[in-house]
Design goal:
This is Extracellular solute-binding protein. The chain is α/β, with parallel strands linked by helices. The protein folds into two domains: about 230 residues, 3-Layer(aba) Sandwich (D-Maltodextrin-Binding Protein, domain 2), CATH 3.40.190.10; about 160 residues, 3-Layer(aba) Sandwich (D-Maltodextrin-Binding Protein, domain 2). The chain is about 40% helix and about 15% strand. The protein has 18 helices and ten strands. A six-stranded mixed beta sheet has the order 2-1-3-9-4-10, with helices on both faces. Strands 6-7-5-8 form a four-stranded mixed beta sheet. β1, α2 and β2 form a beta-alpha-beta unit. α9 runs antiparallel to α17 and α17 runs antiparallel to α18. The longest helix has 19 residues.
């Protein structure tokens, strides 16, 4: 399990949570793979007389578990696919940079996390095949902002988008009812439509009649991430300058997160920690920001006793939490075959299959009209029409300005600054100074 900082994506959730996403939506799961293997792949292996394509990933991309590798190998009997996965992106990514620097040890296909795509696109693009020119690639299949994230200023696209994390709000209907709030998802969405301030105001109303010792939201860090992720310009400007200290988006997210903490709307938890998981089981908070991959985590941790109590409503503003890419290094010994496989894995039809099996929300908008995606409902969440909810959110996500150190900045704001406010009772001013000092040291500012 990854901590809440660092890699924000569905792969931060255990494979067991993916399996828990629900009968009728997802099929079963398989082993996460051997985390001791190096991400480089390295060729060889089974498939005597075949061309072996190696794929280096982190966490659980789900291609193997969803049966896509097996399907491709059946369609192409001369191809053998071997995946090597490292559990944590913070271990995988430095190795990828090392291999790119030496030009050796690379897999034929390498995964790239969204928090790292800007750095790879701006500093390592010459090491990757331009997939915009690959046969079968249709730019319009992807959401425009997703395509732009992996495209250089001179128009080369070094990675094809695999998934994204459009956000909604998951909420407890039973707790809302006891607090005197609407429970039907469309009415709930109207409570905060268009404005994160309204979300906090709803929280204040909830706390006036909060059942038992429950709170409105899980954490200040969760509020910050949700709010900041719904903005285009956050930590960097278009020129690549670090602007987070003066960013209106960061200020809005910080102010709302610290207000939520000060007004006792939060359960003072840190996401992806054991105490956070236990709070799901005990029903300690009423709302949480959730991309598609979070649904399985909630189902697993909240358990059967909470089935039908959770529901899904649109977030105040569309935002993105997670997503990755796959690219083909020029050092690949099988560039042509690897490119064909990368194109096939990210085609709308395969992205729809991956969602159906593994809850990976497609970055290919062309997949949204396919029944596996567009008609998807989730039994655990009261048959919430998640296909429609997340498709609508995905189309409204702003084109975010990414920077090479987004991950470091966000991690220290939430794990240093906001934890001090939420758990230690420090003033927002002192906590902000602590967070910025840590960030400046990390970035040698």
């Amino acid at each position: 399990m990854l901590r809440s900082s660092g890699t924000y994506r569905r792969r931060a959730v255990t494979l067991a949570a993916v399996a828990a996403l629900g009968a009728g939506l997802l099929a079963g799961c398989a082993d996460d793979g051997d985390d001791s293997k190096d991400s480089s792949g390295g060729g060889g292996g089974g498939g005597k007389g075949k061309t072996t394509i190696t794929i280096g990933t982190f966490g659980v991309f789900g291609y193997k578990q969803a049966g896509l590798y097996a399907e491709y190998m059946k369609l192409h009997p001369d191809i053998n696919i071997e995946e090597s996965s490292i559990e944590r992106n913070e271990n995988y990514y430095p190795q990828l940079l090392t291999h790119l620097g030496t030009g050796s040890g690379l897999a034929d296909i390498q995964a790239i996390e969204v928090d790292n795509i800007n750095e790879v696109t701006t500093t390592q693009a010459d090491k990757f095949v331009d997939l915009a020119k690959a046969p079968g690639v249709k730019k319009d299949n992807w959401l425009s902002w997703k395509w732009a994230q992996a495209t250089t200023k001179d128009g080369r696209t070094i990675g094809l988008g695999t998934d994204i994390g459009p956000m909604a709000i998951c909420y407890r209907k039973d707790l809302f009812e006891q607090a005197g709030l609407p429970t039907e998802r469309d009415e709930v969405a109207k409570l905060w439509a268009g404005d994160w301030n309204k979300y906090i105001e709803t929280g204040k109303k909830y706390m006036k009649k909060a059942p038992g010792d429950t709170t409105f939201v899980d954490s200040a860090g969760g509020v910050f991430n949700a709010v900041v992720s719904s903005n285009a310009k956050r930590y960097y400007d278009e020129s690549g300058k670090i602007i987070y200290k003066d960013s209106p988006a960061v200020k809005e997210a910080w102010d709302l997160a610290t207000t939520a903490s000060k007004d006792k709307l939060t359960a003072k938890l840190q996401q992806f920690q054991k105490s956070w998981d236990q709070a799901y089981s005990n029903g300690k908070f009423a709302t949480v920001s959730c991309p598609p991959w979070m649904l399985g985590h909630i189902k697993e941790k909240a358990g059967a006793k909470a089935e039908g109590k959770w529901d899904v409503a649109a977030a105040p503003r569309p935002g993105n939490w997670g997503g990755s890419f796959i690219g083909v290094p020029k050092a690949s010994k099988h560039q042509e075959e690897a490119t064909k496989l990368a194109v096939w894995l990210t085609a709308p039809e395969q992205q729809a299959k991956l969602f159906e099996k593994q809850a990976s929300w497609p970055s290919a908008q062309a997949a949204y009209s396919l029944p596996q995606v567009g008609d998807a409902k989730h039994p655990y969440f009261g048959d919430a029409p998640i296909g429609k909810i997340f498709a609508e959110a995905a189309k409204g996500i702003p084109t975010q300005v990414l920077g090479p150190k987004d991950q470091i900045i966000r991690q220290n704001i939430t794990d240093i600054g906001l934890l001090q406010v939420d758990q230690q009772g420090k003033s927002p001013k002192d906590a902000w100074e602590a967070a910025t000092k840590t960030i400046d040291n990390a970035l040698d500012q």
